[in-house]
Amino acid sequence: MKKVVFFIFLAFNITSAQDFTDSWEGLFSFTTIVDIDESATAVYAASENAVFVYDLSSRTFTTLTTVNGLSGDEISQIHYSEDKSLLVIGYENGLLQIVDQNGDVTDVVAIKDKQVIPPDNKKVNEFLESGDLIYIATDFGIAIYNLERLEFDDTYFIGNNGEQVPVSSLEIFNGFLYAATLDASNNLRRAPIADPFLIDFMNWQQVNPDVWDEVIAFDAGLFAVTVGGFLAEFNGTTFANNITQFPSRVLDASATNDFLVFTLNNQIIIYDTSLSQFLTLINVNGESFEFTQAIVVGDDLFIGTEVNGMIRVNLLNQTDFEFIVADGPSRNAAFSIQTLPEELWVTYGSHDIFYTPDNAALGISHFVEGGWINYTNDDIDGLLSVPTITINPENPTDLVVHSMNNGLLDFIDGVASTRYGINNSSLTSILPPSTFFVRIPDGEYDSQGNLWVIQQQVDFALSRRNPSGNWTAFDVGSVFEEVPSGSSTTKLVITNDDKIIFGSTDGGLIGYDPTLDQFTRLTDEVSEGNLINPYVSALRIDQRNQLWIGSNLGLRVLFNVNSLFSDEIQDARSIIIEDTNGIPRELLQDEAVLDIEIDGNNNKWVATASSGAFLFSPSGRETLFQFTTDNSPLPTNSVNDIAIDEETGKVYFATNKGIVAFQGERSSKPQENLESIRVFPNPVRPGFDGNVTIDGLTERARVKITDIEGNLVYEAVSQGGSIPWDTRSFSGNKVASGVYLLFISTSDNIETTVSKVMIVR
User: Fold this and answer.
1) pTM summary value
2) pLDDT of residue 699
3) Please, what is the average pLDDT of the chain?
4) Which end of the chain, C or N, has fewer beta carbons within 10 A?
5) 341: cis peptide before it, omega within 30°?
6) Is the backbone of residue 59 left (phi > 0), alpha (psi -120 to 50) or beta?
7) Is 19 a domain residue?
């Protein structure tokens, strides 16, 4: 009886996924292929949490990501139904998503949300379509979904006494449904497909002992593969005819009319209808790969790989091959990002909360001119665990790549130049005289062209390289006693007058005045800084010279950053807001803040470890928006980093599951005067439905817009260097065609200017 209620519950857990293509862009990696399927015209390849579709005739790509409505969760299987024109996507958490030919995505959350199934038992392992039904092999048993009615049909718990068992593969053969299980006590089972009582576990007959990865029909036979790699053929009663033992575990099996394909980690073995080995592929053009999946389409073999995307190899001529990878970064797990106008740099080398590095050799990526350039670890001279890069503001093609293992590297015009370590700079190793363990979490250029970097677990944790290339180290241990004994510096910012401020994991906030050669420090003690705790995870100075300080437990603001270097240090303060019940509380109380960014309007963009990303007003007292997986294409609520392209207004969010970008309003920083006023687009042409941007403004400049007769239609005061105008008057209606005058004045009315914009409806 419980099972009947369960089925009814499944049938109604269907919702439509949101489409965010109007204002968002997905920047996902397609290098790791987890599954491949085909239609008559295309090959579908699933990466970790996105799908790309390769059109066989035009040889072009389309992609499906969270921006199109995918969940962002880990994909485990895909299946294209030619009969229904539907793409079915299965996930490790049990979610199903169904994409129709119009690109509309339907969420089927019944398995994912069902509490009687343990979270670890919901993975979708394989799809098998038959008529209107698709049979789903899962880690708890078999679920059946009706593709015509878009609802669940049945669920079979086929283990002993009806227990949940992981089913790895399914096949229908000679009137029976076969299920390969990964359970030694349940083995490989079958039941008559026409039996109306397959819900009863007693109707499932054990065919063979052992633990099984695959069961698949080919030509006129049925074949199965054990976890131990034994390939056997069904003799009508049992799988007894052992054909071979593969050298390693079979990851996937597929079949066409002519070929039976088995994918192993390091080779692909193909049999013909006589069960002779037609092809054993161990490399492509002499290079070995980690294979994940393979299918035959016509005369070609399409292969999924662990890190190299999809490869097409001609079956008859293996020298005819090509790599097929939708454009994207080298991997999804983006740790930090930096922007230039219409460019994005990405690093992948992460560290934990204590700044212990992962020592991964992952390279970096560059998004420029609408495409990706992925630099390998060799391209960056073998640097390990790269957490951040610093861009030279005087020469944006000159990058400094930081390592949490082996120093830093000048990376100029996309080419590795000089690497700096203990032998050619003031940088020091945690374990001298080793040239390794030179850990650089962050760096920044000051207005004089000096590069400042911070180090971990050494006394001289602050270093400066001047424009001539000379290095100087500064003894941070004199003010931050914990740094040589295991503590780490974290983030670094530089004030307008070139004073240095950096955080630490357990020593609070440290400031350094290069002119006076003096250190100062804020701690979590009252009258000594009033930080939430000694852990500083994020730092940013806003346009009002306020220092915003993030920690693993919330947020503090030092309302005058210069006070850090005065005789009487001010305490940092919390921002007090009212919650939905009108009760005062601290802004972001108990939230782990991972990054803070300031846009041109002095708004605060804050990345958190578990609650997505926030957009706050300049004072922080108003939450303008909170982006989460529920209301945005963020693939996870853990956001590692944020970067803002001030030229376009695009805001990038880096997560361990990929990068997404939100097209916000362009909000440039305020200017010193009104000499660079721009109005765009100008003219505003028929059909334009966006905002007109008035750019090049000073802080709190007043803009009055009138028609040609002098009637005031709009007025605003800038919060940064630009103002958006939606071309509507005070009444809320769009203004008529004509020329409109813009009267602009600084906040003190000392400087004024006039501009104009033409609107054509």
Assistant:
1) 0.90
2) 86
3) 93
4) N
5) no
6) left
7) no
